Amino acid sequence: MEQAWTKRNRPERLERRIEFDNYEATRVFLERLNELSEGSNRFPDISFGRTYVNLTLRSEQDDAPIGAADESFAAAVDALLD
Q1: pLDDT the model gives residue 10
Q2: pTM for the full model?
Q3: How far is 56 from 81, CA to CA, in rounded Å?
Q4: Which residues, in sequence order, are CB contacts of 69 under 8 Å at separation 6+?
Q5: Who is most buried in 28, 32, 58, 75, counting CB within 10 A?
Q6: What is the phi/psi pair of residue 60, to 5°?
């Protein structure tokens, strides 16, 4: 079951869980996410298992609300799934 980004408070952040059919698909996604993160200098918190990835995205400024740059990065992550 794929989950859309969920906005949470205290601290404000975006969270998403992405599930995959197998480890290979998970690994390929993590490699793409690495390239995106390195290229944009944005590094979400990541936890993962064999067939899932949990992402947490916080604003780059401490205690700042989620803004357009954060939403844009989330959309770029979504595009990795296409």
Answers
A1: 84
A2: 0.90
A3: 17
A4: 60
A5: 58
A6: -70, -25
